[in-house]
Write a structure and sequence with these properties.
Length: 419
């Protein structure tokens, strides 16, 4: 580790495996890279210029990073070579030997950590709850809540848009949908940040998942005997592969829904509002023609894709010209895929008229984001209500935005002002 890396506060570097050639190595810390924490997508564009579309990094215990669009697309659809089951039974058994005897069930986020055909079976109980029809039915309630949040700060002339709107809106919507107490929002957000932070070893994730499941335990128990009109109650009534629901499986579902539902859309909203604040002419174009907002939301998703899923190599294979060995970790760097100039000419340009509009911000293949329909409703509604209720707004020149990186390229703070 060089003095520069120490100064930058990067994670420790590990030795390069013998099968990885020097040409495949690029030193990149997906959590602590300084560029990612200053201006994430500017750094992603640079990464695409200076590193191969598939590379190996010695940071965070050593792993592969896939930034290219074609490579991400191929990887995401090849579940035989790249597994979502990053903690197989043998690995879990080895971890259990290091846990206290009374630790209990190790929650395994389901169905995202499964491969087909099991993935299809375990995803089925969630399909109807997240269908386009079900999400459209929530649209006006979401709109009313968005209006309340925006009106609450409108007379101030400024706000941190993340804490004022982008965080409370989707998190409250999802907590109500799931059936968790909204008054615990702040506590739950802390848990999400802890869960997504860098880990020193796989066992860290075990303890974090158990902590999330424990935070949900009281509600899970209550809905088991006293169901309500929420997703937890719906899951208790479901059968999976012909078998009744169990508490262990409810914890598995719960961990996935908790982490996915309480973090991702916040950042989608934040990047959209940041783009509008940086582009006043475009902001006013959308005010004049609100019908363009759905199309604008899609180009915002492409330009500022922010999720970074993880896979493990299931069998010795090759991707991007490099040999990969069974058991190695791979991150699907979707922000890079949607800024890949080989797929999107002039990828840094925001262009709603571009010929190819098929972004993969929600992923591709069997694990395409289950919550994409809800996310689209929330994004479009927030943009519509902000543009209708606030005058021309800009970034607050006295307080820069703050970001953090990892499995999400996240916006922590987005101060804006208006006159």
């Amino acid at each position: 580790m060089t003095m520069d890396n120490i100064a930058a506060g990067l994670s420790p570097a590990v030795a390069k495996p013998a099968h990885v050639p020097d040409a495949a190595v690029y030193d990149f810390d997906m959590y602590l890279d300084p560029g990612l924490t200053q201006d994430p997508h500017k750094r992603v564009l640079e990464l695409l210029r200076v590193a191969p579309p598939v590379f190996w990094t010695p940071r965070n215990m050593g792993h592969w990073v896939v930034t290219g669009h074609a490579e991400n697309y191929a990887l995401s659809r090849d579940t035989a070579a790249f597994t979502s089951n990053i903690a197989p039974p043998e690995a879990m058994a080895a971890l259990r030997a290091h846990l206290p005897p009374d630790f209990g069930h190790i929650p395994n986020a389901t169905p995202i950590n499964l491969d087909p055909p099991a993935h299809t079976i375990y995803r089925a109980p969630l399909q109807a709850a997240f269908s386009p029809k079900a999400m459209a039915a929530r649209k006006e309630d979401i709109r009313a809540f968005a209006g309340e949040l925006i009106d609450a700060v409108a007379k101030q002339g400024h706000c941190d848009f993340i804490s004022a709107v982008a965080e409370p809106l989707p998190v409250t919507v999802f907590l109500k949908m799931l059936g968790l107490p909204v008054e615990r929002l702040a506590e739950f957000r802390v848990l999400v940040h802890e869960h997504l932070a860098p880990a020193q070893s796989p066992i860290d994730y075990v303890f974090r998942s158990r902590k999330v499941a424990d935070a949900m335990r009281e509600t899970l128990e209550a809905r088991r005997t006293e169901p309500k009109d929420d997703l937890i109650s719906l899951l208790w009534q479901a059968e999976v592969d012909g078998k009744p629901m169990t508490m262990e499986l409810m914890e598995d579902y719960g961990v996935l829904l908790f982490i996915a539902g309480l973090d991702t859309v916040i950042n989608g909203i934040g990047y959209g509002i940041r783009h509008l604040a940086l582009n006043p002419v475009f902001q006013n174009e959308l005010r004049a023609s609100p019908k363009l907002i759905p199309e604008a939301a899609e180009e915002i998703l492409r330009r500022y894709t922010f999720t970074v899923p993880v896979r493990a190599v299931a069998k010795n294979t090759e991707l991007g010209g490099w040999a990969m060995k069974r058991g190695e970790r791979v991150v699907i760097f979707l922000p890079g895929a949607d800024l890949d100039a080989r797929e999107f000419p002039a990828p840094d340009k925001f262009d709603m008229n571009r010929e190819n509009k098929m972004h993969i911000a929600f992923g591709v293949g069997p694990h395409r984001c289950l919550g994409s329909h809800l996310a689209r409703v929330e994004l479009q509604v927030v943009y519509e209500e902000v543009l209708a209720r606030l005058p021309l707004f800009r970034l607050d020149e006295t307080r820069p935005a703050r970001f953090h990186a990892g499995n999400i390229l996240a916006i922590d703070s987005l101060p804006i002002r208006w006159d």
